[in-house]
Specification:
Blueprint lengths: L19 H26 L10 E3 L2 E3 L1 H20 L1 H24 L12 H19 L14 H10 L10 H18 L5 H10 L5 H13 L4
Antiparallel strand pairs: 1-2
Helix pairs in contact: 1-2, 1-3, 1-4, 2-3, 3-4, 6-7, 7-8
């Protein structure tokens, strides 16, 4: 029995609904990983000195064996994160994006010195800044915004937080409201498990049109007040 309707098999363990936001996170991580991995593989195949501070040109950038190895490890981390879940991929891209920017600034300070252990050049610094910004943009997509896309898995978290901050009119106060909330939970579970009655399906569909806890409860109870036809 699946945890949500129409889940693709590859995301069953992560319990995510399909959508544009999860796809951007996962595919974006893999695409960036492919670019970084290609750079690393070319460097290792070229037999670069491991700790050379001068480096050699690889795809327009300067590299040595150490930088090539780090590139491959970074690409592997991104791929593993993408395979785990879009949430993990998003967080990983945000972290690595920041590291790319920090690396660009740190290596800019040691260019043409004996401590330029990654054999950075100005081109490498520019690439690191661009790669860092791309990773931050992809990682933050559908996650850091005042108007999240409808398919964002982070949208419901924001709605829940907003509900928790306004408890004066959200919490059930009467026995009828508490009973309604129990019935609401049972109906939503029944819909997920594909065993809901037509009445439960209509009520859950109607509740989906509103966002706050109190409004959802009002919608549910409106069906009880409506005259039978």
């Amino acid at each position: 029995m699946s945890s949500a309707p129409h889940l693709p098999s590859w995301s069953h363990t992560s319990q995510e609904e399909p959508g544009r936001v999860p796809a951007v996170h996962r595919i974006g991580a893999v695409v960036v990983a492919a670019v970084i991995a290609a750079f690393g593989v070319l460097g290792l195949l070229d037999g670069l000195d491991y700790f050379s501070t001068d480096g050699e040109r690889i795809a327009g950038l300067s590299s040595n064996g150490l930088l090539s190895t780090i590139s491959l490890l970074t690409a592997a981390v991104l791929v593993v994160a993408a395979l785990r879940s879009s949430r993990v991929a998003s967080t990983t891209m945000l972290v690595i994006g920041v590291l790319f920017l920090v690396s660009a600034l740190a290596n800019l300070a040691v260019l043409e010195t004996e401590v330029n252990f990654l054999a950075f050049s100005v081109a490498n610094v520019i690439f690191s800044i661009i790669a860092g910004l791309v990773l931050l943009t992809l990682g933050a997509y559908g996650r850091v915004s005042g108007n999240l896309p409808a398919d964002s898995p982070y949208r419901s978290e924001g709605a829940d937080a907003a509900e928790d901050t306004d408890t004066s009119q959200q919490l059930p106060e009467t026995p009828a409201e508490r009973a309604a909330e129990r019935a609401m939970r049972d109906a939503e579970l029944a819909v997920i498990e594909h065993r809901a009655t037509p009445d439960q399906e209509r009520r859950v569909a109607a509740m989906a049109q509103v966002r706050t806890r109190g409004d959802r409860r009002d919608v549910w109870m409106s069906f009880d007040r409506a005259p039978l036809r």
